[in-house]
């Protein structure tokens, strides 16, 4: 082992080796992901080659947008009071994106395809654990707790990861152009677990959205494409109007559906879809929400507070104390985030913070578009789907505010981005 540590070639290769296994850790207890990140950073510091690392980081198209977000968070912190016990952790969340740059500095290599395979392997393991739990065969221990009990953010993350993995599998299948029974079975195995076992409405909708991106990746406004989009929009509107007329389910809580009423995965998925439509309808009419639909109340209250200071926001970490004061006596009073990163960034950092966030994600989409015409085109769709997934999930969850989501997304983001020739990307955009 000492000989290996003293070997400079081995030290340079070790960060990439660790990075290739990090996607596998995302499907287990969050401590395993954090331990993997610490191990990667330790190996990265020992690997040397600082000149090449800095060159890759400096040339990244994401550097300026991420720096702009950090600068905004610093400036806003100087003009607003710091809430006791909240400021340090809240401020650190706005710096999370910096963790992607050590990963990007590793550069391209075989580790990328290995990381994708490990991500797919993790999805297959996760699907198996969901199936085992549905059969009552999974032990109730800490390692598998997220598969046995609905744990909020971690359970939501598992659904999002399965949705992204299934979409990536479809892309790989199309890219390789070789139908194999193994690919078909793996895709179906993960997809069924996503739909029937995760109980995540966001994840199921995300998969549909990513499939749409695959289908319309070369949208050129041809008559059949426009007709297909119009038809889908009409069918969606018609379906929502019909669902709004259906009787209300006996409960809208997934845990009660499963534990009390012993509903199947299909029934839970359908009932939660009906509940979502009914919650939006009822909130629009009476402004009253149930425990399952409290996000609507969160969004309305947060938006009302944003309007009080839309330009400079209310300060880093101030959402929680201010919201608890505003929502006294309401069902959402105990919530710790607004479950929407766009509202959170606008509330705490003002309009500049929201623009900075959108600029980061817009840059990722621009890179994906430019990659599609270059040798890195096989990773372009992976980047586009992941970015779209982050943007969509941020509408309903704290995708960057919570490290459980943020670090998982950054680990996946490093896979397609690490091989970018950013100088070439910049030249092509000029």
UniProtKB/TrEMBL annotation:
It is found in: Membrane. The chain crosses the membrane at residues 20-47, 59-79, 91-111, 118-136, 156-173, 226-244, 342-361, 382-400, 406-425. The keyword Transmembrane helix applies. Keywords: Ligase, Membrane, Transmembrane, Transmembrane helix. Signal peptide: none annotated. The keyword Transmembrane helix applies. Residues 191-358 form the O-antigen ligase-related domain. GO terms for molecular function: ligase activity. It is a multi-pass membrane protein. Pfam families: Wzy_C (PF04932). InterPro entries: O-antigen_ligase-rel_domated (IPR007016), WaaL-like (IPR051533). PANTHER family: LIPOPOLYSACCHARIDE BIOSYNTHESIS PROTEIN PA4999-RELATED (PTHR37422:SF13), TEICHURONIC ACID BIOSYNTHESIS PROTEIN TUAE (PTHR37422). This is O-antigen ligase family protein. It comes from Undibacterium danionis. The lineage of its organism: Bacteria, Pseudomonadati, Pseudomonadota, Betaproteobacteria, Burkholderiales.
């Amino acid at each position: 082992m000492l000989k290996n540590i003293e070997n400079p070639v081995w030290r340079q290769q070790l960060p990439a080796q660790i990075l290739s296994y990090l996607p596998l850790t995302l499907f287990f207890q969050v401590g395993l992901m954090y331990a993997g990140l610490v191990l990667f950073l330790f190996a990265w510091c020992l690997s040397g080659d600082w000149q090449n690392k800095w060159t890759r980081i400096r040339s990244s198209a994401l550097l300026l947008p991420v720096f702009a977000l950090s600068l905004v968070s610093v400036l806003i912190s100087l003009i607003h009071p710091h809430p006791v016990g909240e400021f340090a952790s809240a401020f650190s969340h706005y710096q999370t994106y910096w963790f992607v740059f050590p990963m990007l500095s590793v550069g391209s290599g075989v580790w990328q395809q290995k990381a994708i395979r490990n991500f797919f392997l993790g999805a297959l393991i996760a699907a198996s654990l969901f199936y085992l739990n549905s059969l009552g065969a999974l032990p109730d221990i800490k390692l598998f707790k997220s598969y046995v009990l609905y744990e909020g953010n971690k359970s939501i993350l598992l659904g999002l990861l399965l949705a992204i993995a299934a979409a990536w599998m479809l892309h790989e299948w199309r890219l390789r152009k070789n139908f194999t029974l193994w690919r078909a079975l793996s895709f179906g195995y993960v997809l069924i677990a996503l739909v029937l076992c995760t109980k995540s409405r966001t994840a199921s909708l995300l998969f549909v959205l990513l499939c749409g991106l695959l289908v319309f990746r070369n949208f050129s406004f041809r008559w059949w494409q426009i007709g297909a989009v119009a038809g889908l929009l009409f069918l969606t509107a018609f379906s929502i109007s019909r669902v709004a007329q259906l009787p209300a389910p006996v409960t809208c809580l997934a845990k009660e559906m499963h534990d009390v009423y012993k509903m199947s995965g299909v029934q839970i998925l359908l009932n939660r879809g009906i509940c979502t439509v009914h919650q939006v309808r009822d909130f629009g009419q009476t402004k009253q929400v149930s425990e399952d639909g409290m996000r609507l109340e969160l969004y309305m209250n947060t938006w009302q507070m944003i309007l009080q200071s839309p330009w400079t926001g209310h300060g880093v970490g101030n959402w929680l104390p201010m919201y608890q004061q505003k929502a006294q006596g309401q069902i959402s009073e105990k919530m710790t985030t607004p479950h929407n990163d766009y509202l959170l960034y606008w509330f705490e950092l003002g309009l500049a913070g929201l623009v900075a966030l959108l600029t980061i994600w817009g840059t990722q989409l621009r890179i994906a578009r430019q990659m599609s015409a270059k040798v890195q085109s096989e990773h372009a769709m992976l980047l586009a789907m992941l970015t779209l997934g982050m943007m969509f999930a941020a509408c309903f969850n704290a995708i960057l505010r919570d490290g459980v989501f943020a670090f998982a997304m950054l680990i996946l983001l490093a896979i397609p981005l690490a091989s970018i020739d950013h100088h070439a990307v910049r030249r092509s955009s000029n």
